[in-house]
Amino acid sequence: MTGGIAVRWARKANRRPLAEGTLRCSLALLALGGGLLSLHGAHESAIGPYGLIQALPVGYFAALALALLSFLLTWASSPPKWHEFVLEVLVLVVLLQGAPAIIESEPRFPTAWLLAGFTDYVSRTGHVLPLLDARFSWPSFFAGVGLLERASGLRSSVALLRWWPLAINVLYLPPLGLISQRILRDAKQTMLVLWLFPLANWVGQDYFSPQSVGLLLYLVLIAIVIGPFGRQRRRLLPWRGIGVSTEREEVKTMRWPEVATLLGALVVLDLAMATGHQLTPIFAVVAVCLLSTFGRTRLKAFAGVMFLLTAGWICYGAFPFWSGHIAAIFGGLGKVRSNVTADLSTRLRGSKAHYEVVNVRVAQSFLTWALGVGGIIFGQRVRADVRTALVLMVTPFLLLPAQSYGGEAGLRIYLFSLPGALCLASLVLTRDWGLERRVVLGIFTILLVPLFLISRWGNELTELVRPAEISGVQALDRIAPAGATVATITPEITWRFTDILRYNYQPDHPDDFAFRTVAAVVRILSENGRNQRGAYVIVTTEELSFGEQTYGLPRSWGPSVERLMIRSGTFRLVFANAATRIYQFNESERARK
Amino acid sequence: MPRLLPSSTDRRADRILAVAGLILPGGAALAVGLGVPITARFIILVIATLYGPATPAFRLACQMPWFECLALGIGIDAALVMATGQGMVMLGRWAPGEAVACLLLSSILVAVALFHRSVNGLGDECS
After folding, report:
1. Residue A100 and residue A54 in contact, taking contact as beta carbons nearer than 8 Å
2. Rounded to an integer, what distance in angstroms lies between the CA atom of residue B20 and that of residue A207?
3. CA distance readout (Å), B75 to A56, A306, A552
4. What is the C-alpha to C-alpha distance for residues A233 and A294, in angstroms, rounded to an integer?
5. Which terminus of chain A has a smaller tally of CB atoms within 10 A, N or C?
């Protein structure tokens, strides 16, 4: 009888972990289902000056809370189950990155549409146009996607834009997991890094772009450099350790096929990076060089190979870009202050809401970095490899004395410092603070959710692409003959996704914003010479929102410019829909006046 | 260092990775041949080219756990596609169909070698 009770208890005890696991998975799936359902009920029109967060329904926040609860339960279980965690982190990424994809009628972000146009051009012709745009001087992303697009028969890479951020964010997680595992040597801390990454990555460089793939390649490269080629030398200065057996090396003997495969993989990764993006290979070279200096990798000379490949491509492949822009490349060298100012001044401006969104971004970045610094202090006594994490966190900052990168250096620095910073942050967050760790983590993650939603999707009013804008640009293709000059009144517009060479597009530089008055519009159209094929101005809601949000112009600014354009008699409205107006410029009328 | 992420280093994992390396390129070729809807065809082709040849090659040469092979292999295959496209643009010979066919074929060859090893028992060397 007693034996029977004992057996029943043992069976119950065996069943308990299974039941708990089922509960956790059910919570995650419930969060996914509930979140997706609630997103389908959300309206694009509710997106306001603070972005997507204003359109998100209560059910969505409840779903995120459920996902968080599920993660905390898994994280606290002993030992934590990886398959449950993978499900939970996937649910988190789908909920975070899938929100605009589900709510918005068209794929978001005008630059993504432009890059789709670039990709389609390469896919159709097999050529690049380095004199048209600097990004064509680093074309391997366009060539790679174009290759698959053409081979599969896909007509346009616009089809990829909507779900690209979700897919690429999922792909970041495995190499990031390997890096964190190598640094932290703790399953729970590794899980925490993977959980925090989607919430901390507000930078928005994960749209269809060379940078999005560049980060993936960077993570894979670092995972190999500190993984199979990793080592753990204690001394910073190797020559001081000669003859002393205090070094704790963990070097696995490698056979030649293994070394050859891994080195070949590193070369392919670096080739793709060097020819695919301006900044990523530079971050990678510096990181590998420092990791080698600090004794974290056995690859002593590979940083040199990477440098040669990167410099070689810049000298040879990117010649059309730098031959005319030496000042743009080296002008910021050594000017830390002006580079930082350029970064902040182009961001900290605009409408009140935009300013607040930027402040949230700055706060979130400094919070992450502060936790990283905390990890350096508190991580000294744990078995984690703090030095590798520190190198990965600090390396991107070395860009500051070199370049402002068109006012985007800060964004890239934060993005590339995340793997190291989050590893260090996890050391702080999992430290014994006398509180239940789950409570600390729960509070921190709850804080991160609204921060992420504001900082990541805070510009959505400007970055949202409206269906009427797409139909307006398609109408332009019907109205304006090929070769005509087409101008916008701000650079934020979704166009050039069908044929990048169809028109003489103005402004030709994305940072130009000279079209605040009718006189400026006329000047730009006239400066480009009298175009026999005609000249047109296209005004979209997106352009006007950009002026209001980013430059703090009053709401009346756009309509008043348009009114004045019509009154001047040199512009004639030839098309209008809910979000687009197309004006034809009458050069002869202007000359007559 | 103890492996903290899920790992399976037995012969069965070799076989699964090898079979995936055979099925995915085969599926992609079928999808192109049978004319399935373009979006589906693109997705299948992307999955096949991101899986191989690097994932089975890592398993074959480096004997890493399957998870590491997959995590690193996807990124390396993405780089391989980019480098291939870049090379063709530089050489002025744009032949996407042939290039993708070569990538898929190399994936199949590596997968066959991996399968051969798993059948002949050399997979036991994996540690």
Report:
1. no
2. 29
3. 33, 17, 41
4. 8
5. N
Residues 80-119 of B with CB under 8 A from A: 80-86, 88-90, 92-94, 96-97, 99-100
Q: From A516, A457, A453, A515, select the one nearest A487 (Cα to Cα).
A: A515
Cβ partners under 8 Å of residue A418, min gap 6: A197, A200, A201, A368
* Chain B closest-CA separation from residue A170 CA (Å): 11
Query: What is the spatial distance between Cα A67 and Cα A88, in angstroms, rounded to a whole number?
Result: 6
CA distance A172 to A169: 5
CB-based contact B75 A257, cutoff 8 Å: no
Give the separation between CA A582 and CA A415, rounded to whole angstroms. 38
Omega before residue A79 within 30° of 0, cis: yes
User: Which one, of A492, A354, A448, A415, lies nearest residue A51 by Cα?
Assistant: A354
Position B71 pLDDT exceeds 90? yes
pLDDT digits (tens, 9 = 90+) for A102-150: 999 999 999 999 999 999 999 999 999 888 888 888 999 999 999 999 9
Q: Indicate if the alpha-carbon torsion angle B7, B12, B13, B16 is positive or negative.
A: negative
- Among the listed residues B14, B35, B27, the one whose alpha carbon sits nearest the alpha carbon of residue B110: B14
Q: How far apart are CA A324 and CA A330, in angstroms?
A: 12
Closest residue on chain B to A119 (Cα): B85
Q: Do B75 and A171 touch (CB under 8 A)?
A: yes
ipTM: 0.90
Q: Who among A147, A175, A250 is closest to B85 (CB)? A: A147
What residues of A are in contact with residue B48 (Cβ under 8 Å)? none
